[in-house]
Model the fold of this input.
Amino acid sequence: TVNRDHSVFISDYIDGMSSEATRRNYTLEIVSFEGQPISAVAESLAGAPVSGVIALGTELSEADIRLIQGLGLPTVFIDTFYEVIDANFVDMNNEDAVFKVLSRFRHQGFERIGFVASHVDTTNFRLRRDAFFKYMTRLGLKVREDDVISLESTYDGAYSDARALLQSGIDLAECYFCTNDIIAYGFIRALKEFGVRIPEDVSVIGFDNLPQSATMEPALTTIEVSKRKIGYLAVTVLDDLINASETQPAVKILVGADLVIRASDLAHEVQPPARPAKAPARRAKLPAG
Done:
């Protein structure tokens, strides 16, 4: 089961699982339980003629995982992760991704780094927010409370919320890390409508590397975590579990991120290394009329 923000990635997960399953002589059967209770998932799996299970569940709770584990089938969970549950997980490394974003901004000489969060509560959003504060401190960067903003997670919602903030005269940071690409799209649209140039006035980095990120104007610098790699590793771990002659310790894998460099954060790199002692405030201006 997946939430609305992750349905776009299903094909990539499946591609990775399918190629590796075929190579290992398994038949991959895809079953969707979106919108159904976890009890329906457990009921379907109980007694099913399968060798093992890969469960894609972004917002599975600890109780959900224990329920599926209790079926006694070799199981690997993807797109979710719990450090202290005795289960097998393959997931993206959100902390690694956020550290790479902040390190890039710091290398570019930015001091006021903002974060565009979302008031929609998902595990990945929460992990990225926590990592932002953690690694800002580690990199010796100060977080200004006003530079952390929260927008709706849909494109239209993010645009509407960002527009309201700009109308209120928000004092913009030098750059922003957006929780995901969808939020970045809406945020950038609002910035451009208010005469804020990307990246000349404000640099922006997203997360997910959705196809539109490469074609929008300006093209969005963003985080890429290989969903195919996660799918491939899930089958590899599952195969080991199926063929093990004795009980195996839990395997927990976090797949690292790549920063895909495009045009939305490049302005600072072409500037002279010397910077003024105090940067002027970046205030959005209401469009004429």
User: Anything to note?
Assistant: The chain has nine helices and twelve strands. Residues 1-5, 270-274, 276-280 have pLDDT under 50 and may be disordered.
